From TrEMBL:
CDD domains associated with the record: HP_PGM_like (cd07067), RNase_HI_like (cd09279)
Coiled coil: none
Low complexity: bias regions: 140-165, 178-189
Protein name: Bifunctional RNase H/acid phosphatase
Domain spans labelled RNase H type-1: 3-143
InterPro entries: His_Pase_superF_clade-1, His_PPase_superfam, PGM_Phosphatase, RNaseH-like_sf, RNaseH/PGlycerate_mutase, RNaseH_domain, RNaseH_sf
Gene3D superfamilies assigned to the protein according to its UniProt record, in alphabetical order: Phosphoglycerate mutase-like (3.40.50.1240), Ribonuclease H-like superfamily/Ribonuclease H (3.30.420.10)
Organism, scientific name: Micromonospora zhanjiangensis
Region (Disordered): 140-196
Pfam family name, one: RVT_3
Length: 406
């Protein structure tokens, strides 16, 4: 058992085509014995090398948190990820900043985390897991390109301690620190107003009311339709979005009908834009708690409820943890920013995915998930710039619901 002990994390990721069919791998070892404690691997569809590498690091840190490790020595053959996590290289790519912020949040769970750059030949286990995941991604990708991975700098391995979490989350290099000319960088913190024309704007909408919403029941993977009130809310939301965002490039929805019905009304109002579904936007799987009220769960599973409220790594019985939900939501976010640069995208989803998106955008802690309330068809808006800047402009706006019969 590794609880309270030091662990070694080896992580890697890659894409065949950059972007192309992508996947990551992570291995946890006992720092003293070298025993393999856990492996994580997943295909992530079409993404870049850097996105896959960050997701490999995040998966490994999540696994370390799950087993209660005290300290982590993270070793990667990605110079970029190591330098960015240590705060010496800035982050420019908008799709990487939420991933770096999520990794920084995970780092705070441990007493200490160090990052070590190692040559690829010393990262073979994680590399093999990542390549197997890329194989799985390539099987479902049309006309996958040959494997192409950019060269990585060859230099003696060196270990550095992670810097102050606030500096690391800001993604800012220290005085005089520089990276290569093509390294993504994060814009320095500033109050100066930004132009919005080059930002990808995400209009996040929770679906309309259902019978479960009205009764305060856990509604996860169950396909509960909109109620009559929910339909009216969705129509009002469609009119509001059309006024807020007259030019919409895409409407992307969770595949559950309460979301697709909301999304279809919005899509028709903004110019009959086709609705695309993304399974990564589906609600958390609440397992045995599905369809039950909070009081019923507290009565039937008091210990499990307390543990679930206390840690995002804990899942409801037969369900899914917020850590797992967060992983797929970050994949959805990276895909949207990569596919629609500088455009407006409407995203129709559920409470948990939207909360996780906003938590990452604000670089907030996990307590945020239990402190933010989202109404049915509440609208939240965030902008992501190509230089790495993120601005949350609106959270849970419900002005469009004024006057609707409850």
């Amino acid at each position: 058992m590794a609880a309270g002990r030091a662990v070694l994390l080896e992580a890697d990721g890659g894409a065949r085509g950059n972007p192309g069919p992508a996947g990551y791998g992570a291995v946890l070892r006992d720092a003293d014995t070298g025993e393999v404690l856990a492996e994580r691997s997943d295909s992530i569809g079409v993404a870049t090398n850097n996105v896959a590498e960050y997701l490999g690091l995040i998966a490994g840190l999540e696994a370390a948190a799950e087993i209660g490790a005290r300290s982590v020595d993270a070793r990667m053959d990605s110079k970029l990820v190591v330098e960015q996590m240590c705060g010496r290289w800035q982050i420019k790519n908008a799709g990487l900043r939420p991933l770096a912020a999520r990794a920084a949040t995970l780092v705070r769970r441990f007493e200490s985390v160090t990052f070590t750059w190692i040559p690829r030949e010393r990262n073979r286990h994680a590399d093999a897991l990542a390549n197997a995941a890329m194989d799985r991604a390539a099987e479902t990708a049309p006309a996958a390109a040959p494997a192409v991975r950019p060269p990585r700098l060859v230099e003696p391995p060196r270990t550095v301690a992670a810097p102050d979490p606030a500096a690391r989350e800001a993604g800012r290099a220290g005085p005089g620190a520089t990276g290569p000319a093509d390294a993504p960088t994060t814009a320095p913190a500033s109050w100066e107003p930004r132009e919005t024309t080059d930002a990808t704007r995400l209009v996040l909408i929770r679906h309309g009311e259902t019978a479960y919403t009205n009764q305060g029941r856990y509604s996860g993977r169950g396909d509960v339709p909109l109620s009559d009130v929910g339909v009216a809310q969705a129509r009002a939301t469609a009119r509001r979005v059309a006024a807020l965002a007259p030019s919409v490039a895409a409407v992307v929805s969770s595949p559950l009908s309460r979301c697709t019905a909301t999304a279809e009304l919005v899509a028709a109002a903004v110019g009959d834009v086709p609705v695309r579904t993304d399974p990564n936007l589906i609600e958390c799987d609440f397992g045995a708690w599905e369809g039950r009220t909070f009081a019923e769960v507290r009565s039937g599973w008091p210990g499990e409820m307390t543990a679930w409220l206390g840690s995002p790594t804990v899942a409801p019985p037969d369900g899914e943890s917020f850590v797992e939900v967060g992983g797929r939501v970050r994949r959805a976010m990276a895909g949207l920013l990569g596919a629609y640069p500088g455009e407006t995208v409407v995203v129709v989803s559920h409470v948990s995915p939207i909360k996780l998106l906003l938590r990452d955008a604000l670089a907030a802690g996990d307590a945020f998930l239990h402190r933010l309330f989202l109404d049915p068809t509440g609208i939240s808006v965030l902008d992501a710039w190509s230089d790495g800047g993120i601005a949350v402009r609106t959270v849970n706006d419900t002005a469009h619901l004024a006057g609707l019969d409850a």
